[in-house]
From TrEMBL:
Residues 8-84 form the MIP18 family-like domain. This is Iron-sulfur cluster carrier protein. Belongs to the Mrp/NBP35 ATP-binding proteins family. Homodimer. InterPro entries: FSCA_dom_sf, MIP18-like, Mrp/NBP35_ATP-bd, NUBPL-like, P-loop_NTPase, YlxH/NBP35. Keywords: ATP-binding, Hydrolase, Iron, Iron-sulfur, Metal-binding, Nucleotide-binding. Binds and transfers iron-sulfur (Fe-S) clusters to target apoproteins. Can hydrolyze ATP. It comes from Bifidobacterium bifidum ATCC 29521 = JCM 1255 = DSM 20456. ATP binds at residues 132-139. PANTHER family: IRON-SULFUR PROTEIN NUBPL.
Length: 376
C-alpha cells in the first residue's frame, strides 16, 4: 500500500533529475527543496488509484530568479508523471536565506577553485577568435560559431574579451545583466549560448580606458567569478591586434587554440598574419584561418568584391613560419543577413526557431564547427 511518506521519498528521488539551468546541478543537491508534503489520500478499494495533493517548498537562489518558471515547470512534470498514484502538485516558491545562499556559493567556489578551464583533465575545447585589424567580421564569426556549436547540441560558452569594442550582447540580443549570487555571476544565456561581456554591466556605454593590469584582471574575473559549469566549448572574442588581452588569454588559458579571421584583400591578410604570429611568443597553438566576406552571390554568380586569396595567404605564411600546418578552415560568403539579422539580436546562422540554417551559410558554419572539434 502506498502511503504519504513513501510518496514524499519517491518524489524527492525524482527531483534529483531536475537540473537548475544556470548552475547545471540537481535542485536537490543545491538544497533548493526545503520540504515535500503529501496529503489527502482517497479510499483505495479494488481498482482505485490513490490520489494525493503534493506540496513542494522550493527555495530559489535569488528572489525573482528569471528561470523560476522553468524550474517549477520541471518540478510539476516530475510530480504528475509519477506512475503509482495520481498526484496534484502545488509549488510554493521562496528564496534562500542569506546564510544558506552564502554557504552554497562558498561550496561551489571551493569546488571550482578559481579558473576552471586551466586544470588537468578539463574537457572544454577553447577557441580564441582573433584578427589583425577591426572590420573583418571577427565578432560576427565568433557569435555565429558559438550559436552553431549550441545548435549542434554542445554546451557552449562565450566570453566577450574585446573590452573596448564589445559587441556580443547586441549580436545575441542580450539586454539583461548576469545574476549575482553573493559575488558569483551567472552568465546570461541567449540562443543556447552562455555569455559574459563587460557590455552587460551598468555604465558599459561609456568609454573604457583600461591599461594592461586591469584588462588582465577583467579576464580573470570572467573566468573565475562566473559559474560556467562544464561547457564542451568556450569561445573568446578577442580584441583586434596583438595587445594585452591576447597575452592575458595565453597566460590564463594555455590550452586555448587561436583561430585567425581575415578578409580576402592583401591589406587585411598581411595584418592578420601578425595576429597568428603571437603564437611565437606565447604557448598557444594556431588552429587555423577563417576567410570572411570571400564572395557575394548575385544571380547565381559569385562576385569576389574584396579580391581573392587572403585566407590562403595567411594560412601559407603561418604554416611556413610556425612550422606546422595552419589550414584554411572556412571561406564565408558576404551575406547581408550577417549584419541585418545579427543586429536584430539573432545570430544570422540560426532560423527564428533557433535551428541551424540549411543554406550555404549554415552548412559552412556547421563544417567549421565540426572541423574544429575533430582537430587535435
Amino acid at each position: 500500500m502506498t502511503d504519504a511518506r513513501h510518496i514524499e521519498a519517491q518524489i524527492y528521488e525524482r527531483l534529483n533529475k531536475v537540473i537548475d539551468p544556470e548552475l547545471g546541478r540537481s535542485i536537490t543537491d543545491l538544497g533548493m527543496i526545503a520540504a515535500i508534503n503529501a496529503v489527502g489520500a482517497t479510499s483505495q478499494g479494488d481498482g482505485d488509484v490513490p490520489s494525493y495533493d503534493v506540496t513542494v517548498h522550493v527555495e530559489l537562489t535569488v528572489e525573482g530568479c528569471p528561470l523560476s518558471q522553468t524550474i517549477t515547470n520541471q518540478i510539476n512534470g516530475a510530480i504528475v508523471s509519477y506512475p503509482d498514484a495520481k498526484l496534484t502538485p502545488h509549488i510554493e516558491v521562496s528564496s534562500m536565506s542569506h546564510d544558506k545562499l552564502a554557504d552554497l556559493v562558498a561550496g561551489l567556489k571551493a569546488e571550482r577553485k578559481q579558473n576552471p578551464f586551466n586544470k588537468p583533465g578539463v574537457k572544454t575545447r577553447i577557441f580564441a577568435i582573433a584578427s589583425g585589424k577591426g572590420g573583418v567580421g571577427k565578432s560576427s564569426v565568433s557569435a555565429n560559431l558559438a550559436a552553431t556549436f549550441a545548435a549542434l547540441g554542445y554546451d557552449t560558452a562565450a566570453i566577450d574579451a574585446d573590452i573596448y569594442g564589445f559587441s556580443l550582447p547586441k549580436l545575441f540580443g542580450v539586454h539583461t545583466q548576469p545574476t549575482n549570487l553573493n559575488g558569483m555571476l551567472m552568465p546570461v544565456t541567449a540562443w543556447g549560448v552562455k555569455l559574459i561581456s563587460i557590455g552587460m554591466f551598468a555604465g558599459a556605454d561609456r568609454a573604457i580606458l583600461w591599461r594592461g593590469p586591469r584588462l588582465q584582471r577583467s579576464l580573470e574575473q570572467f573566468l573565475s567569478d562566473v559559474w560556467w559549469g562544464d561547457p564542451d566549448v568556450l569561445l573568446l572574442d578577442l580584441a583586434p591586434g596583438t595587445g594585452d588581452m591576447a597575452i592575458s588569454v595565453a597566460q590564463a588559458l594555455p590550452n586555448a587554440e587561436l583561430v585567425v579571421v581575415t578578409t580576402p584583400q592583401p591589406s587585411a591578410s598581411d595584418v592578420a598574419v601578425r595576429s597568428g604570429l603571437v603564437a611565437l611568443q606565447v604557448p598557444m597553438k594556431v588552429r587555423g584561418v577563417v576567410e570572411n566576406m570571400s564572395w557575394y552571390e548575385h544571380k547565381g554568380e559569385r562576385l569576389e568584391i574584396f579580391g581573392a586569396g587572403g585566407g590562403r595567404r595567411v594560412s601559407d605564411q603561418l604554416t611556413e613560419t610556425l612550422g606546422y600546418d595552419v589550414p584554411l578552415l572556412a571561406q564565408l560568403p558576404l551575406d547581408p543577413d550577417l549584419r541585418e539579422v545579427g543586429e536584430s539580436g539573432r545570430p544570422a546562422v540560426l532560423n527564428e526557431d533557433g535551428a541551424l540554417r540549411s543554406d550555404v551559410l549554415g552548412r559552412t558554419f556547421r563544417e567549421l564547427a565540426e572541423g574544429l572539434l575533430r582537430s587535435e
